[in-house]
Amino acid sequence: MSSERRERGEIAARRVLAGLLLLTFAVSARGAVAAPQSLKDRLAGVWALTSFDSFDPTGKKVPSVEGGDLKGRLVLTCDGQLSVQMIAEIPQLASKNRLKTTQAEDHAVAHAVLSFFGTYTLDDAKRLIKFRIERSTFPNQVTGKEASRAVTLRGDALRFDNPTRVAGGNVVIAWKRITALASPGCGK
Q1: Own/partner pairs for 80-84, CB < 8 Å, 24+ apart?
Q2: CATH top-level class for 39-180?
Q3: Residues 171 and 64 sit within 8 Å (Cβ to Cβ)
């Protein structure tokens, strides 16, 4: 066999080997599984209210707020900060001054708004979010203790189930993701 022929055979063999190595790398890279995100990574973001249902101890549905066209936002940050606003439609104030209102206007505002902020922690294993509410338009929520809610997260749909409503009964609140805030290491 001539040296030229032997050289061509070695080049061809190297090309085949290089192709096999590339194919092996491509298949293994394609099959690689990304590390699963923590619950905190998946929850961090801004959420829009889709439903807010309250039930008394007998299971009867009761109003959560008064007024139509209820809208809300939930903000959960990577470092455990929490902000919730749920506000129904409120009529304009006659005085145009929020500090000079009638008794009826005070009633309308107080019954149409639920807003609170504080911090939260998560129990991934039990699928619980634990709120520590610092301030609320419903002061009975500010207890200095953690308030647990069961968490259900499916894609961009989030649901909190609160079995210990302050007035008795339970509350189910559903949210839809607007913006994700998760960044690498958010859950650490």
Answers
A1: 80/119, 80/120, 80/121, 81/117, 81/119, 81/120, 82/117, 82/118, 82/119, 82/120, 82/131, 83/116, 83/117, 84/114, 84/115, 84/116, 84/117
A2: mainly beta
A3: yes
pTM of structure: 0.77
Q: Which amino acid is at 50?
A: T
* DSSP-assigned beta bridge partners for residue 113: 87
Q: How far apart are the first and last CA of the chain?
A: 64
pLDDT at 15 over 80: no
**Distance from C-alpha of 49 to C-alpha of 163, rounded to nearest angstrom:** 19
Is the model more confident about 28 or about 115? 115
**28 φ, ψ to 5°?**
-70, -35
The larger pLDDT score, comparing residue 15 to residue 160, is at 160
Rounded to an integer, what is the distance from CA 41 to the centroid of its chain? Answer: 9
